[in-house]
Amino acid sequence: MSKRIEKDQARFRNIIRGRVKQNLKKYITRGEMIGKKGKDFVSIPIHQVHIPKFRHDPRKGGGVGQGEGEKGTPIGQGDEAGQGQAGAAPGQHILEVDVSLDELAEMLAEELELPNIEPKGQKNIESEKRVYTGISQAGPESLRHFKHTFKRALKRQIAAGIYDPKNPIIVPIREDRRYRTWKVKEEPVAKALIVYMMDVSGSMGEEQKEIVRLESFWIDTWLQRQYKNLETRYIIHDAVAHLVDKDTFYTTRESGGTIISSAYKLAQEMLEQDFSIDEWNIYFFHFSDGDNWGESDTNECFTILKNTLLPAANLFCYGQVESPYGSGQFIKDLLAQFPDEEKLILSEISDKEAIYNSIKEFLGKGK
Fold it and tell me: Is 263 helix (H, G, I), strand (E, B) or coil?
């Protein structure tokens, strides 16, 4: 019975996974996803999945195709619209299911055809890995060793004198089953640093900031799957840059002018103090509406990018969110200044629907 229940649960999970994957593009643009995120799972609302079944008619009045009648004869009367009292039958409801962030990342990778990242360097911190070391008489069915189980059953039947070479049927019993055992091995893994930078100046409205937060959430979900040891830093800036925590990044509502170089300088200082570029895989994601204080500050940004941030980074991704108040000039300046820079990925994000393609532009090269 337990195996049947497990089989049904697995089938249900596959159905749910198919539903989520089918509507993944819609979920990517839903802001409430961030609020529903737990430690390892996120709750996703989907329409309930009903399994078809036959129902008994208590009236016993027969069905379609029974009794007298001619072609075109009505088979019954419907209720008049708006008539009747409140009933006791359940209606259609929304079901919330918990999907692991790792599953979401896998779906995102399949849907966007994202390649696995090839990290640089190795970290001196160890990660855990299972190594199969032996055979045991007990264990989960998923680790059953079929070859050892078969040999054990064969030996038992030969010893009992019930083995027939002319009809060599081997039927293992519970005592014959053997299972793999393992131990946890520590091994070095690559480490990564993600730096999210967001313009929170007055020209960035709430819609633009919401787009940034949504895209950052999904990028983070994917990179968490690629790196077991991941450090994340959040920088917000208007005319001045601040290093903030995650909650502040996702909820802040500031305003003011825009000096982009303030964020780049803070990122540069952070690398020099805390992160060696030889050991860390470093990703920068900067989001802005393209408005900057002036040409002199834009040139200062170019200097910091050229001398520090681009040499240190696996990728520097700049996403420009369309805003009715921003000039949109910065992405044009970057393209003109670094036309052949492979580490610099530029993306124009017109609205929430564009998040989908922007993620693919940023992560589609597997760096």
Answer: helix
**Structural domain boundaries in the chain:** 2-50+93-112, 127-186, 191-363
Look at strands 191-199 and 280-288 and give their pairing.
Answer: parallel
CA separation for the pair 65, 301 (Å, rounded): 78
**How far, in Å, CA of 100 to CA of 103, rounded?**
5
User: Strands, E, within the chain: which ranges?
Assistant: 41-47, 94-100, 126-136, 179-188, 191-199, 229-237, 241-244, 280-288, 315-321, 344-349
**Diameter of the chain measured on Cα atoms:** 93
Question: pLDDT value at position 112?
Answer: 67
Strand 229-237 vs strand 191-199: parallel, antiparallel, or unpaired? Answer: parallel
For tokens 């009794």, the residue is 67
Residue type, 292: N
Helix axes 101-112, 355-363, angle to 10 degrees: 90
Q: Strand, coil or helix: what is 16?
A: helix
* Full-model pTM: 0.62
The CATH number assigned to the domain with range 191-363 reads 3.40.50.410
Segment 320-347, tens digit of pLDDT = 999 888 788 999 999 999 999 999 999 9
User: How high is the mean pLDDT of the chain?
Assistant: 76
pLDDT interval class at 308 (50, 70, 90): very high
